[in-house]
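WARN  no MSA supplied for this record, continuing single-sequence
INFO  ligand: arginine
INFO  echoing inputs
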Amino acid sequence: MKRSVVVLMAVCMMLGLCACSGKSNKLVMATNAAFPPYESVEGSQIVGIDPEIAKLIADDIGRELVIEDMAFDSIIAAVQTGKADIAMAGMTVTEDRKQNINFSDPYTEAAQVIVVKSDSDVESPDDLEGKTIGVQIGTTGDIYAEDIEGATIERYSKYFEAINALVQGKIDAVIVDREPGKVFVSENAELKMIDEEFTVEEYAIGVAKENTELLDQINASLKKLKESGKIDEIINKYITAE
Ligand code: ARG
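INFO  complex generated
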């Protein structure tokens, strides 16, 4: 048994090395497609801001975009082990994550917000003390919730599960990124968003530490796409200014 595990590991490592050797013309993007308007599943497609930007970058660097949908908290490991080339999942740049992967230049700004029931007494982040808070596991919302005094954290694998729990009155609030939060509130009449933002963040593309060539290519592409207005065009297509 032990022996076969060792053999299996060796085979996996060899496969991993091949995947990193740059022979493949595919650009594999790891995401968690339950995060509209950045990424969501529509029929058999993954659509949204991130796949559209990724497609332009892939075209620009002459690679074929392949999207892998997975748990949010598996994405960084997928990039580190070479299972995926890039992480693109409305992923916030954080110092902790920078220990494990490199980030491209940011492509957009974001924020964490609080979603509650319309009749909730929660009016600001301070009111979350002692409450039961739903988050998506491994997100920055999860990390911030940990700092709230006396709070109980309920961790879900997808945001909409947290939103359902909120609608059912099982939890008091959900901490989520602003634009997905807006989508969830627009789909549930009994929910509202607190105006005050919890934190301001930036989204960027994650790349394995050793893959500096790809990182440079992505940054060069992003620069062109920003300058030509293509990034704004995609974002404005999904997010209408109020
Ligand atoms: N911006 C937050 C973070 O980086 C949440 C991202 C969740 N993304 C997703 N595709 N589910 O932690």
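Residues 25-107+204-238 form a domain with the D-Maltodextrin-Binding Protein; domain 2 fold (CATH 3.40.190.10).
INFO  checksum written, moving to next record
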